[in-house]
Amino acid sequence: MSRLTPKSRGIGSSDKQPVVSLIHYETRAARSRVVPGVTASSLMPAIAKVMDLKRTWLHTDGGAAYKTIAPQVAQHESVDHDAGEYARGNVSTNLAEGYFSQLKRSIDGTHHHVSTEHLPRYLAQFDFLYSHCRDTDSARMRRLLGQVDGRRLTYKPLMTD
């Protein structure tokens, strides 16, 4: 079974674009998606796209959207931040909180600003780095180069997507 900690947050300036990130409990692999909002109807497709719902254990905060999603996954447990509960046994949102903390520091410290248009690309880059943070630089580079065979990225597609 996969245990995931999703987190929905806006990233950037005061006009925050909602992002959902799923962190695999055991492997620490991250998958992030830009979503139109933090409702169950917008979060569910993003979660279903990367997970087998019937085998997923979902650990969340007390957000109302997750209560609607809960019946569609194998198991759902949440912590109540409003009541001062941040962890109960192995149930917490700490992985996702740590991920977003690092993501925000990376954007603020390296890129300073990320446009909504290119946010999915930044998320993909950060997911890769976060998911493979324990790899050596050489191993990370080999993995990256192993994924680019037959692909060519030019400037024009970046500006027309």
Count of separate structural domains: 1
Q: Write down the secondary-structure element order.
A: EEEHEHEEEHHHH
What helical percentage do the residues reach? 25-40%
CATH superfamily label: Ribonuclease H-like superfamily/Ribonuclease H
- Under CATH, the topology can be stated as Nucleotidyltransferase, domain 5
The appropriate CATH architecture is 2-Layer Sandwich
Uncertain stretches of 5 or more adjacent residues: none
Structural features, described:
This protein has 161 residues and is an alpha/beta fold. The chain has one domain (2-160): Nucleotidyltransferase, domain 5 (2-Layer Sandwich). It has helices at 40-50, 64-69, 94-111, 119-131, 137-146, 155-160; strands at residues 2-11, 17-24, 30-34, 56-60, 75-78, 87-88, 91-92. β6 (87-88) and β7 (91-92) form a beta hairpin.
Relevant terms:
161 residues; alpha/beta; Nucleotidyltransferase, domain 5; five-stranded mixed β-sheet; two-stranded antiparallel ribbon; 6 helices; 22% strand
Summarize the structure.
With about 160 residues, the chain is α/β, with parallel strands linked by helices. The chain is about 40% helix and about 20% strand. The chain has one domain (about 1-160): Nucleotidyltransferase, domain 5, CATH 3.30.420.10.
